[in-house]
Amino acid sequence: MSPAERVTELRSLLEHHNRLYYVEAHPEIPDAEYDKLFRELEELEDQHPELDDSNSPTRRVGGAPLEGFEQVQHPVPMLSIDDIFSEEEVAEFYRRLQKNLGLESIPVTIEPKIDGVAASLVYRNGSLDYGATRGDGMTGDDITANLRTIPTLPLTLPGSAPTLLEVRGEVFMPGEAFARLNEEREEKGLATFANPRNATAGTLKQLDSRAVARRPLAFIAHGLGVIEGLELSGEEAFRALLATCSIPCNEPLWTADELDGLLSAIHELDQKRHQLPYATDGAVIKVASFPDRLALGTTSRAPRWAVAFKYPPEQKPTQLLDITVQVGRSGILTPVAELEPVALSGTTVSRATLHNESFIHERDIRIGDTVLTHKSGEIIPEVLKVITEKRPPDATPFSMHEHLEGKCPACDAFIARRENTEGKERPVVTWWCQNPLCPKQAVAALTHFSQRKALDLEGLGESVAVKLVESGLVGSPLDLFSLEIGELANLLLDPARLQTGESSKPRRFGEKKAQLLVESIKTAPTVQPLSRWIFAIGIPQIGESASKELSRLHETLPEIASSSLLRTVCRIADLEDERKEISPQNRDNPPASQSEKEERRKRHATLKLEIAETQSGIAEFEISPDIGAVASRNLLTFFESEHGRIFMQRFQQLGLSPRSDNFSPRPAEAAASGMMPLTGKTFVITGTLSRARNDYKALIEQTGGKVTGSISKSTNYLLAGEGGGSKRDKAATLGIPVITEDELQSMLQ
Q: Which of 390, 410, 657, 705 is the residue whose CA sits 20 to 30 A from 465?
């Protein structure tokens, strides 16, 4: 193959993998393999300048902007950063700095390279103006609404802040939070994310910021874009500014002013990076002085004053000794690899998740195999692949049903096979315990039922839930309402761990704690509104937002159990599925003949009419997307199941009758009554107001309105204080009224 042909091939390959990584968030190859291809292309282009092309992946930064978001142009380009892979290259980089600056000693900083999604935050006059993705380096996606959901990210800055400040950094998902997210997805039979970066990229692609708010994102700043109103001398001054503004900053940080100190810092970071809360695969080296950075300048794609030293990916072989099975809150059975202990990324790994039976079969994983392991995102132990050449003759294929002999390992009840196709070309096969009273499920259900976002039961944590189930006092959440103070007070908890390393005697729960818990249980039906009860039940896909929407549409729990609205939502979805399937234009299922095409055309027209008529029948309810077909089916499945019927019978026998605190099923009627004056109205809030935005958000929602993060054609009003320029401009373009705080109060009155 000629150099020209290889260059063409490499560019095509890299563009393909760029899109998978940056746009679709589903990479096919590890970073190390991508880096190898990229370096090969760089070397060929250096050797053959006649093959130079401005559209080469080596001249681009990241992926193209996603469709569906508004585009913003970066004040200065968001460049990438060159990678280096050896200590020799580190030395070469430092010598190049010495030569170009004419100095022997050059202070540099060394910090972790965060494996996240690059983002830019622009603050004007102390308020967040907008946030954007890197995009192609020149233009990115406006993801302001999504970034606002990150709790540690300040929306306003102190009065001493510069008039214009652009901060650049990484959006990421902390390791423990990522593990919990994948556990929740496995609980629901959904495809899990490959690593924290994939999860972050997929989350930021969401057009609905409410969905983003349910994901545990974080942000760390590491760079400066533009700044007005303040002069900064270097990295130290920049970090001091970030601290003043309460913007999270990349740490730990090392400084060095000679090569030996630089290499020492890289080695020290390698030892510490596995304890960081985020995934990191390298060390970023930057010239500390801003004037020196300016003097060094940039290439077309990267600064000359910074590089990223990439640590080699750590992957080790070990033997798969056995496969065990864990039972989750919803009854899902998760296979776990029991491994010969192996030192990996700073810890000893002896277990790794195998996700589901599909994962095992796709990779042909067998008990007794030698498998290659790594830590996904440097955090989660995972089996990468089987080393088939080391497979022993007696390696045993795994079947969940045969392995468990068709029974749940926790309660001996029969297990069932289910398939889920969401987010996958092929179905994901999972197995479930069918016993709703399974003790493993009961503990998780009790913990969920009592959490702060649910019924907020005083003192009922996981350790207490375990003992309540083990003692036989509680088998399901509703059994809590029959607890007596005496039997609860005498409950023996696990011994406490002393500072000496010894254990104390088993602890009594005690009268005082028992009285507080029983009191909170008894008052829950009147103190906690219906929405919290719905959430507490723990039905898949029914989170806080969906629970609030259900309580707006229904006044009591029995009304939800027999809801005609939910059945209509499911009916519309079924009709829509049929319409798509029989459509004459369905490329996956084309008509076999002209006569079939004509028959399908007629049926298609009939279905469209039926869908429109059915939708018009519930249009007045203005049902939120939170209650879609999946959520509605899950609700109906629960209430129609044997477990659901037993739950409702017990619920009514106990005399429980929580009621909605936001019931207004018909927006037009609610608005006309004056009780919910903002019903059916959608608001966006911007600028500096006299009260916290969350206060106004709660006020609007309590009176029937909705608050979203970005302006669209469906927005009715923009509530604006001082500032908020970009949203004001967009509101003017779309003809959306801009109102003040006083005008909002007038609407409420």
A: 657
Q: Are residues 693 and 738 in the same domain?
A: yes
φ/ψ (deg, to 5) at 495? -60, 150
Instruction: Give the separation between CA 582 and CA 600, rounded to whole angstroms.
Output: 6
Residue 661 lies in a domain: no
Q: Domain check: are 100 and 243 in the same one?
A: yes
Query: Using CA atoms, how far apart are residues 594 and 403, in angstroms rounded to an integer?
Result: 51
pLDDT at 514 over 80: yes
Token digits of residue 138: 């020149």
545 and 513 part of one domain = no
Answer whether residue 560 is part of any domain.
yes
| Number of domains into which the chain is organized | 6
Instruction: Mention every residue, 6+ apart, whose C-beta is less than 8 A from residue 693.
Output: 155, 685
CA angle 351/324/438 to nearest 5° reads 120
Kind plus residue range of the DSSP H or E element containing 164: strand 164-172
Q: Which of 310, 329, 358 is the last residue of a domain?
A: 310
- Give yes or no: residues 139 and 222 share one domain: yes
Residues 519 and 538 placed together within one structural domain of the fold: no
Q: Which domain holds residue 545?
A: 533-653
Q: Per the domain annotation, does 660 fall within a domain?
A: no
Strand partners, 322: 338
Apex CA 704: angle with CA 698 and CA 709, to 5°?
Answer: 55
Question: Is residue 719 within a helix (H) or strand (E), and if so which, with residue range?
Answer: strand 717-720
Q: From CA 111, how far away is CA 222, in angstroms rounded?
A: 9
What distance in Å separates the CA atoms of residue 340 and residue 342, rounded to the nearest whole number?
6
Please state, in angstroms and rounded to a whole number, the distance separating the CA atoms of residues 346 and 590.
Answer: 55
pLDDT digits (tens, 9 = 90+) for 575-594: 998 998 889 888 878 888 99
State the CB neighbour count (10 A cutoff) for residue 609. Answer: 10
Asked if residues 96 and 57 have their Cβ atoms less than 8 Å apart, the reply is no
Catalytic residue among 36, 113, 272, 505: 113
Could you read off the pLDDT of 595-648 as tens digits, one per residue?
998 999 999 999 999 999 999 889 888 887 788 888 999 999 999 988 899 999
Contact assessment for residue 78 and residue 134, using Cβ atoms and an 8 Å cutoff: yes
Biggest CA-to-CA distance, the chain: 87
Q: Tokens for 477, please give them.
A: 């959440």
Per-residue exposure over 495-532, b if at least 16 CB sit within 10 Å of its own CB, e if not: eeeeeeeeeeeeeebeeebbebbbebbeebbeebbbbb
Indicate if 113 belongs to the active site.
yes
Tokens found for residue 470: 């083990």
Neighbouring C-beta atoms of residue 743, cutoff 10 Å: 13
Shared domain check, 458 and 359:
no
- Residue 188 pLDDT exceeds 70: no
Return the higher-pLDDT residue of 187 and 308: 308
Q: At which residue do the structure tokens 């919910």 appear?
A: 676
Cα gap 374→384, rounded to integer Å: 7
CATH number at 683 reads 3.40.50.10190
Q: Report, as an integer, the average pLDDT of 44-51.
A: 80
Residue burial 535-548, b: 16+ Cβ < 10 Å; e: rest: bbbbbbbbbbbbbb
Q: Tell me whether strands 127-133 and 139-141 are parallel, antiparallel or unpaired.
A: unpaired
**Mean pLDDT score of the chain, rounded to an integer?**
85
pLDDT digits (tens, 9 = 90+) for 159-183: 889 999 999 999 999 888 888 888 7
Question: In CATH, what number is assigned to the domain containing residue 37?
Answer: 1.10.287.610
Residues 627 and 701 in one domain: no
346 and 364 co-located in one domain: yes
Measured between alpha carbons, how far is 246 from 249 in angstroms, rounded to an integer?
9
CB 131, CB 121: distance < 8 Å: yes
With CA atoms as reference, report the closest residue to 402 among 362, 372, 360: 360
Instruction: Report the sign of the C-alpha dihedral through residues 215, 221, 224, 227, in that order.
Output: positive
Q: Which SS3 state, helix, strand or coil, does residue 82 take?
A: strand
Query: Which stretches of 281-362 are DSSP H helices?
Result: 290-296, 357-362
d(CA 378, CA 376): 5
